[in-house]
Amino acid sequence: MDYLLTEEQKMIVELSWKFAREKIAPLAAHYDETEEFPWEIIRELAETDLFGIFIPQEYGGLGGGVFEMCLVVEQLSRACGGIALAYAATALGTFPILLFANEEQKKKYLPDIAAGKKLAAFALTEANAGSDASAIQTSARRETDYYILNGTKQWITNGGEAEIYTVIALTDKSRGSRGASAFILEKGMPEFTFGKKEKKMGIRASTTRELIFQDCRVPRENLLGKEGMGFLITMKTLDASRPGVAAQAVGIAQGALDEALKYARERVQFGQPISSFQAIQHMLADMATQIEAARALVYATARMIDSGAREYSKESAMGKLYASDVAMKVAIDAVQIFGGYGYMRDYPVEKRIRDVKITQIYEGTNQIQRNVIALELIKEAARHQI
Amino acid sequence: MEGIQVITEKCIGCKLCVEACPYRAVEVINKLAVIKENCNLCGACVPACKYQAIIITARKEAVAEKIVLEGYQGVWIFAEQRQGKLSGVVYELLGEGKKLARYLGEQLNAVLLGNRVRELASELIAYGADKVYLVEAPELEQFQDDSYAQVVANLIQRYRPSIFLSGATSIGRSFIPKVAVILGTGLTADCTSLEIDSKTRLLLQTRPAFGGNIMATIICPQYRPQMATVRPKVMKRATKVERHQGEIIPVMMDGKPNIRTRILEVIKMVEETINLAEADIVVSGGRGLGDPKNFQLVEDLAKILGGAVGASRAAVDAGWISYSHQVGQTGKTVCPKIYIACGISGAIQHLAGMQSSEVIVAINKDPDAPIFQIADYGIVGDVLKVLPALTEEFKKSLY
Amino acid sequence: MHIIVCIKQVPSTTQVKIDPVTHTLIREGGIINPFDTYALEEGVRIRERMGGKVTVISMGPPPAVESLREAISLGADEAVLLSDPAFAGADTLATSYTLSRGIRKIGQFDLIICGKQAMDGDTAQVGPGIAEHLNIPFVTWVRKIEEIREGYIRVQRLMEDSYEVIEMSLPALITVVKEINVPRLPSLKAMLRAKKMSLPIWTANDLDVDRSRVGLNGSPTKVIQTFTPPIRGKGEILTGPVKESAKVLVEKLRERKIL
Question: Which residues of chain B have pLDDT under 50?
Fold first, then answer.
């Protein structure tokens, strides 16, 4: 479908897809096997200037927004959702700085991210605080010019590989959800260490680690915004980056559909290519329609965010919910179309099921997304009642 | 479009010219052929038109001095030697050159450059050269573009051969273009067939273009000599002629040549004991081998057959074998008697480098692999099993 | 360092299909000649290391300007197209002459880099021809630049079974083979710059050329015929157990007396 992209947006899509095809696709299976972080690919991605897409020009970026970021994530995910995640998670880790940092902080951190020299990560989740984010326990105690951080973050994407981390910690336990603050940390700060690399079902090229703070001293100037803004920053960050997860799901699904369609046209059974059988055709039709609907929803949400809308939690949640559920179904159907071959690791399609599952879980499980949507609906209904 | 014209009365808009054009420079608009600006006058459409509706308009007379063509005589070949040994292609040049010289009723002469290479001159005569122009000097011991080009150009200016052939080798394709520019004459690269036109007595030079997907026949009517480099391993080798008489003419260089490059080191590539360009048998491996260690199977077969090892671009890009083995559009073009492609799918870029081999054997587990379209013999199977079996069989039958 | 890279726009060969009825090529689109992408990449790498400028030059019909834009998106600083109906029909002598006049007009340079050969003509003659017209030294088949600095270059030239280390002073010309580097992908900033740039097109009037030496007039060689080579007939597929097929194949090759 023609989404009326501008010339520049078309260039972004073209370049991202070219990169995905030529640089990521040939190595996707390799990194899935070895579970190594694909630094080689990240360095080449940095040279294309795509890391700077969503960063303002005055910090070395290209001045695009959430929409452009989604365009890139979608195309890269067509080739590999895991490798694309290094890029998407950097966007997630950068949004707090983009939205809430002061001028010095922006000048200090954004240029390196725009140049692809440093990756970023966002650290909220803990062992006892997943969906219930307010249950975090990592603390940040103020001592003259420093905050002392203690605690452990869990399952942080890009953990250990990124240089820049935005970490949410409690500065005032007594104030509940108003007691959290956001900090910028850098790899190498003393007493900021990493746990072991997690072994995952999918997105194995993405590195997931624990972050461990043991009396870690963070300079006062690394506080983002003001004390107590932690959860506000979290909500705004996740709302803006959630379309990126949705775009990742759309990309993985599109890749699965492409592979299934190609296979269906080549595989001959009963003297015909299986693409001539109605059962297969109907599956393909449903897959394609659902992907298109998901894509349209994600694009509309992203454009809405970029146009300066103030409230978009509901739409952001809808996009992520729908795209990830669709993508899961599409990936499973794609394996079905491949039949026995779909089950074999030699063929690229089973990886997509393993990769896409996480999109239904992270950045807010789909159950939480439904909560959010329902609550917004009810709030709106209440507002419109006289 | 200047230089080419569609005769509108003859054109019926049948589009044969559109299909013949390799540059998409012809369109049929309102049932009339229109030549577009990107036409480069290659002339492919002219013979394609059944109605003679396209003509290349009369060329303006060259302002340059008209060469007196009659003053040029003789078929000359460049006798390339490396480290005191004649390159294989030289025998093919002698064979082909003799055929042309006989037809024209002219002499077949050779140019030999080097240092202390006189016995090679006798070898050239034994294989049919009527005269050998021998230029020996320490400066010519190692091939350098500046010195070789200057010496050869001077010889040609002095003795005025009508045809000058060299091998399309690394050396030939490097310095012969420089010679052609010095002389201001035409040069055709990498010819696979040479003939004399019966009416005009011009050299008809046929060569592949577009990676071998199209053949072009070229002439050099107004300038001399008519120069061509010849693809190795295509033409027939000369046979030794018992007691063939010939003359060795030593020539002194015109002063010291101005050589602007300096060779510091020559490093032989150890892994390749037989070079691809000279091999009669090439066994090539591709991504279908699955693992770099499986190239050993390819090498084993090549060894038994006394052949060279080649590779597809995919195998080279994956780091399984060095670039010097790459066969294809961005690698080497080979023309052996037997080309065995193992685990190579047959992408068009690979075919461009080997499709003129005499016999092509393909081994691939995919029966739809494009390589089977051009293979004379194909085995559909696991290349890791087929290769050892073949090596076994060849061993039995050859030893 | 001012580096000049010569590129040619050629038909895209990945889409080459031979029409089974007319035996002619079916073509789509134009791309930068693959060997020229290695030349361009090398030029850009030198500029990144040493500072300076990369200018890309090409001779071709007006659509070739797209390839120049692509070259800018791949890192070139400037580009110029030599285009004129008078240049059409050029063989390698006329082409190298015309390009050398274009290079003269560009001005002072340190190094000219060309790809080994173009995918359509396959001659590999234009690079050495340009060097001769400009009266500068050249080295062909360069697989690696060992050292380059003001006034000096040292390279490795690839021969059939060996390679030579050769040095010469600049200005000079080299032609490069695929082994020399892996070309980068375009960068978005460069793509945007390329889109906005207005690229100069020089005609025969803009260059100081002898009209009798360009285009068809300046071409000693002429193509009198093109044809498609006889298509290799489909061969035999040997079936059966591996050992059997191997035996049969060896037999057949012996029968053909080709062993």
Answer: 58-66
